[in-house]
Amino acid sequence: MKRRTFILSGLAAAGAVLVGWGALPPGQRIRGKAALPVSQGAVALNGWVAVAPDNTVTVAMARSEMGQGVLTALPMLVAEELDVPLAQVKLVQAPADKIYGNVALIADGLPFHPDDESRTRHGAEWIIAKVARELGINITGGSSSIKDLWLPMREAGATARALLIEAAARNWRVPAAECRTEDGHVLHGSGKKAAYGELAQAAAGMTPPANVRIKTPGQFRLIGASAPRRDTPAKSNGSAVFGIDARPQGMLYAAVRMAPVFGGTVASSNTQAVLNMPGVKRVVDYSAALEGQTGARAGLAVVAQHYWQARQAADALDIKWNDGPHASLSSDAIFRELGKRLDDGGGHTFHEAGDIGKLDGAARIVRAEYRAPYLAHATMEPMNCTAQVADGKVRLWVSTQSPAFAIDMAARAAGVKPEQVELDIKLLGGGFGRRLDVDFIVQAVAIAKQCGGLPVQVIWSREDDMRHDVYRPAALARFAAGLDAAGNLLAWDNQSAGAAIGHQFLKRNMGMPGAGPDKNSAEGEYDMPYEVPNQRIRHVNVESVAPVGYWRSVGHSHNAFFKESFIDEMAHAAGLDPVVFRRGLLQRHPRHLAVLNAAVDKAGAPPEGRAHGVALHQAFGSIVAQVAEVSVAGKEIVVHRVVCAVDCGIAVNPGIIAQQVESSVVFGLSAALMGEITIDGGKVVQGNFSDYPVLRMNQAPKVDTVIMLSAEPPQGMGEPAVPPVAPAVANAVFKLTGQRLRSLPLKLVS
After folding, report:
1. 704 in helix, strand or coil?
2. Which of 4, 348, 514, 627 is within CB 3.0–4.6 Å of 603 for a Cys-Cys bond?
3. What local confidence, expressed as pLDDT, does residue 209 receive?
């Protein structure tokens, strides 16, 4: 933690030194300092690849599997370059080393417009990528796994392949250029053939050639094919191990009670009475360990032999709470504050082009206000962590998206060095950004620290999870746009207000203060592709008492609804079909135009009694267009079909891309039609799926996915299909009813 803070602080003050350092190439990501965990006589050829005598290949897995398919897609990159069947590859959790850090995620945090090709942008991206490489923070998020590891893992596979060829060539005394590889073997034209397992020991002692080349797309055999998911069998037969399945010897269970009001603390409780209940071992006040974490909830935990004993005892605790200063907070008050801040003006201008003053001279001006509520993550596996603090060491069994933060913050809570923390990452029963935060891990360590060296599994109930989340921020957006006399979009002014996720996240998970504009708040608004000659996009950061965090697709999740709904409003004002209107604004964006056309063509014409709504959005590097086929029955909005066209660069595994689109549509529809967290009396009202429903199977639409052919490097695909869902549905509803729904979740008034 101190090293990372030092690097960031030092860069800010480095001046001329930074310029010279920035000109140097980024550090390599192939060879790490930590030993790759291997077994069965396997030999590591670099920080990513090891080969065993039986010819199996071990690949380091540096990202967490939460349903997005990285256990399949990432080893495909190595297997492709190494020329081994995917079935021959097994995975091992990557050790703590900087080469596994997520460079792309941090570099993507810069608030540049996608059309900006300036030297300033490229220079800043170069510098920040180098900083990210030095920080080496391992995170799974931002739809960045494939994007970030596209080159490092392929280079690791290609380098290992070159070493194996060199080892065979020396053994056979032939030029390496005369050798080739196939299915885990090195072959020579003379008929000589050797398995990788026979060559690995010799190859490990060699220096990699300086001219290692990765394959061109025309040489791919695995990449681009829909290889079956490697995690499907275990998840189907019940043998898959998630965080909640950890069972270290001697494990106890803990259930928690957390302050219901934001900022509340424990005043008193009937601890002694609870200690006499069956199986109860102790009652722990863990509050002090969470001090300084924005939105962290003080409270008590009951530790018992079995979970149900702990849960019953925790529910029996008669806790008197000090509610603190936020006991009168409500959703209405929050939105009033957002509106007031917009009335006051100001904020950070993320993008500006032309002269926004020309809006005043437009032939027709349209104004609108949109709003989106707080949202919970509602992962199927609620928050849980198993922790053991013994002999000056910490061991964690947990589902996490942030191994580096988990280690650092666990060490801080236990009072040990990060090197004394051992992390066993399990499968994630849903992440959606919630498991980027480590509050529940710190809580578990603080509880385990008081349990005599025994491992303790802390499990949140669904109500705990729902009412103590780090929420998608509430947001308010205002638009004013003008058309000229011919109906052309002349000017576009967009201002929004909401909490800065990055500010809170840095404080909670790195102990660093957040400052300045937060790109996540305005993404999806300032970076739109539409060619409006005069535009200005601003955002006002408004501090949130409710803790906010990264929710699947982050700011895009609501900003796409705002922006794509208002584009439809402008099309209606211009008297044009919404698709035709969009096409006119994409003349210099052929990829976006092609994606839009592909979705519309695939959708065809809607059946009688239904309407098509359209939305186009770019997020995490991928362009997505959706057509939602909708009908209305009374006040019920029914979505029958969603057609989704995507340009995500090279499609590493098309089958997984289609799965992510389907998942995104269901996730996005849950939020669009039903998702809303409300606050009353400083407390979250919703507590379970009865009052925070998600889409059920009988409500799920048919999803058709069109994947555009592309030679561009792969981009994110875990999140980009979420943002267009809500506006596509809302735009279809307008066609059917004439009602312009400007607030989420979507509700018809009559």
Report:
1. strand
2. 627
3. 87
More confident residue, 20 or 147: 147
* 531, 588 Cβ separation under 8 angstroms: yes
Q: What is the pLDDT of residues 40-64, one digit of tens each?
A: 899 999 999 999 999 999 999 999 9
Check residue 176 and report its DSSP letter.
Answer: G
- Note whether 486 and 544 are same-domain residues: yes
8 A C-beta contact, residue 346 and residue 402: no
Average pLDDT of span 172-196:
97
- Decide: 208 and 162 in contact? Cβ < 8 Å: yes
Place of tokens 């191990």: 241
Same domain, 344 and 434: no
Q: To 10 degrees, the CA torsion angle through 39, 44, 49, 50?
A: -40
Averaged pLDDT score across all residues of the chain: 94
Output the CA angle 258-260-262, nearest 5 degrees. 100
CA 365 – CA 482 distance, rounded (Å): 4
- Amino acid identity for residue 567 in this structure: I
Q: Is 0.90 topped by the overall pTM?
A: yes
Buried/exposed 611-632: b ≥16 CB within 10 Å, e otherwise: bbbbbbbbbbbbbbbbbbbbbb
Instruction: Count CB atoms within 10 A of the CB of residue 19.
Output: 11
Based on the domain organization, do 286 and 218 belong to the same domain? no
594 close to 616: Cβ distance less than 8 angstroms: no
Alpha carbon 410 to its chain centroid, in Å, reads 22
DSSP bridge partners of 385: 398, 458
pLDDT tens digits along 655-683: 999 999 999 999 999 999 999 999 999 99
Per the document, the length of the chain is 750
570 and 628 together in one domain = yes
**Residue 199 sits in which domain range?**
31-102+137-222
Q: Tokens for 159?
A: 């380098």
